[in-house]
Amino acid sequence: MSDDGKRSAVTGCDWCGEPAVARVREPDRHFCAAHFTGFFEERVASTIREEDMIKPGDRIALALSGGKDSTALVLVLSRLLPAYENVHPVAITIDEGIAGYRDETVRAARELTARLGIEHHTISFGDLFGDNLDTLLAGREREACTVCGILRKKALTVAAERYGATTIATGHNLDDEAQSVLMNTLRGDLPRLVRDAAQENPCFISRIKPISRTPEKEVAIYLVINHAWRVLPECPYTRFALRAEVRGMLAKLEYRHPGTMLHLIETKKKIGRYCAGAQVSEPIRRCRECGDPCSAALCQVCRLRHSLGR
C-alpha cells in the first residue's frame, strides 16, 4: 500500500517483467524467482572462475554445518560442479556437541545431502578431542568463539584428509568476509588482515570460498526461492562474540551506504598488494608437539590444549 491507501503497482523483474521477488541494491535491480536464481548462481560461477578455485580431478570437502550459508554452498555447488571434469564433492559436518543447537543442524545437513545425493560424513569434537564443546568451555564461555574456531578448523582438516579431499570449500559470504576485515583492523592484527586463504601452501589443504562475493541477505533469498530455507536455532554462544557487535554495525552502514562491505574487501586486497613481499608473519614451521604446520613453536590447537589443562 502507498501512503494514501491506494494499492501500489507490483514491481516487475528488470529482465522479463514478471513480478519481482528480490531487489539487489548494489547495483539496484529487481528479479523474479527464476532470474534471481540465475543471477546468484552465475555470480558464484564467476567467482570460482576468476579466482581459479576448482581444478579437474578435485575432491572438494564441503563444510556443511546445516545453517543457511553452508546449505546455500552445497546447493549451488551441486548444480555447478557437474560442469567440471572429474570433480567430486563430499560434505563434512562438524558436531561440536552444543546442547539444544547442534543436533537439529546435523539433522538438517543429513536431510539435505540425502536429497541431493551427496556423500556426507559427520565428525565430532568428542571423537577428536575427548569432550564436547560445552564441557571444554565450562567456566570460560566468553572464549567460546575462539576455542570453537580453532577446534573446528582442526576437525575440518582432519575430516578432509580422512576422506581424501584436495580442497575445502566453506560457506563464508560477503558479510562474513567484511566483518573479518573490520575485526582484524580493530584488533590491529595485520597478519590476519592480509592473509589470503586462497594462496596455496603445500603444508595445507587449499581452502576456497565460492559465495564470498554474495551478501547474506541474498543467500537467504536464494534458499527461500529454492525451497531450502529452514528455521534453525542460533548458537547459544553467539552473544559472547565480538563478531555479533561488528555484524550489527556493518549492517547499519551497508543499509545507509550500499557497497560498504565490498569496499572493505577491496581495501583488504589493496593492503595485501602493498604488503606483498614483506614478512608480516612468522614463516611456516612444524609444531614441536603434534607436528602440524604452524607459524609458532606450538600450533593453536596445542596451545589451546595446554590452556585447557589437557
Quick rundown:
This protein has twelve helices and nine strands.
Mean pLDDT: 89
Query: What is the strand content?
Result: 5-15%
So what's the CATH class of the largest domain? Alpha Beta
Work out the number of β strands: 9
Shape by Cα distribution = globular
**In the CATH classification, which architecture of the largest domain applies?**
3-Layer(aba) Sandwich
Can you give a write-up of this model?
The protein is globular, with a radius of gyration of 21 Å. The N terminus is likely disordered. The chain is an alpha/beta fold and 310 residues long. It folds into 2 domains: 228 residues, HUPs (Rossmann fold); 28 residues, no CATH class. Helix 1 packs across helix 9, helix 2 packs parallel to helix 3 and helix 2 packs across helix 9.
Task: Write out key terms for the chains shown.
single chain; 310 residues; alpha/beta; Rossmann fold; 2 domains; 5-stranded parallel beta sheet; two-stranded antiparallel sheet; 12 helices; 12% strand; globular
